[in-house]
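User: I've been trying to design a sequence by hand for this structure and keep getting stuck. Would you show me what you'd pick, starting by listing the structure so we're on the same page?

Assistant: Good idea, let's start from the same input. This is the structure you sent:
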């Protein structure tokens, strides 16, 4: 029989995992690092229609991201910038192509599910297979040849400086981040805003992730990420989990069935799944 999860029980659980309970808000960078390590992966800001802990809400409370630059909640932006060159977590446009922060314990599971084969230049294979654009190839080649570059210089080196190339260049940056080929590693005072990300090839920056991911099977990676996600949100559906990670329904269902067999997840009413922690 499917379990019934009272809404007040679910909301109380999320107040803990999203750090909304009184006295649990993030106060400093050490709190933020501990939060990411506890959850495995979070987003920088809330994402519409996605249930997932995020740095903004955990620090500023359950309210919209402020447009005012001096809002105290924007301390999270400073934390993100400060951590870019520390190799203490992964930051990049990953889930839904949005700013995502992943603990170093969990990033190998994402890597295991990517198109990566563990070679610093395997973006060439992805391009040949039609998974990356020519602009993405240019950007990655520029980084391979020249080392870390800020956005303005990277556009020049990729021969994408023309105004009509801007959208294709930005798409290349997003696609390469989502595929774990490149990663932001710092901030440069460049461009009109005196603020530009510095990018590097993922495998040169996180040199041990490929080796750590090598022995993680696809099924094991999906199961672990599903477990981490359910532990964070309490309850979700196979459809929503698959949409978040871009998995087929059968793949998601297999991961959920594995967790159920290990008594780590429970089938609920209305085709929902709950972490066993919610009921224990």
């Amino acid at each position: 029989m499917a379990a019934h999860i009272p809404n007040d029980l679910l909301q109380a659980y999320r107040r803990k995992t999203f750090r909304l309970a009184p006295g649990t808000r993030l106060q400093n960078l050490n709190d933020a690092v501990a939060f990411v390590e506890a959850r495995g992966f979070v987003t920088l800001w809330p994402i519409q229609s996605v249930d997932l802990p995020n740095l903004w809400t955990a620090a500023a409370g359950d309210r919209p991201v402020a447009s005012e630059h001096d809002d105290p909640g924007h301390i999270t932006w400073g934390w993100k910038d400060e951590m870019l060159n520390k190799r203490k977590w992964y930051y990049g446009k990953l889930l839904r192509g949005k700013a995502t922060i992943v603990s170093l314990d969990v990033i190998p599971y994402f890597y295991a599910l990517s198109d990566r084969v563990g070679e610093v230049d395997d973006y060439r294979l992805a391009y040949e297979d039609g998974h990356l654009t020519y602009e993405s190839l240019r950007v990655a080649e520029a980084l391979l040849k020249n080392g870390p570059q800020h956005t303005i210089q990277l556009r020049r080196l990729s021969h994408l400086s023309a105004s009509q190339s801007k959208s294709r260049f930005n798409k290349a940056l997003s696609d390469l981040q989502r595929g774990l080929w490149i990663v932001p590693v710092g901030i440069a005072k460049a461009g009109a805003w005196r603020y530009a990300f510095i990018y590097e090839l993922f495998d040169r920056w996180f040199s041990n992730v490929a080796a750590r991911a090598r022995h993680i099977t696809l099924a094991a990676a999906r199961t672990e990420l599903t477990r981490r996600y359910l532990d964070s949100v309490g309850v979700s559906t196979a459809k929503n989990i698959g949409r978040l990670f871009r998995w087929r329904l059968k793949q998601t269902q297999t991961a959920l069935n594995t967790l159920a067999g290990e008594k780590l997840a429970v089938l609920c009413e209305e085709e929902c799944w709950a972490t066993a922690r919610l009921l224990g």
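That's my pick for every position. To get oriented when you compare it with your attempt: The two ends are 17 Å apart (CA to CA). The beta strands are 41-43, 89-93, 99-103, 149-150, 182-188, 196-201, 235-237, 265-267, 272-275.
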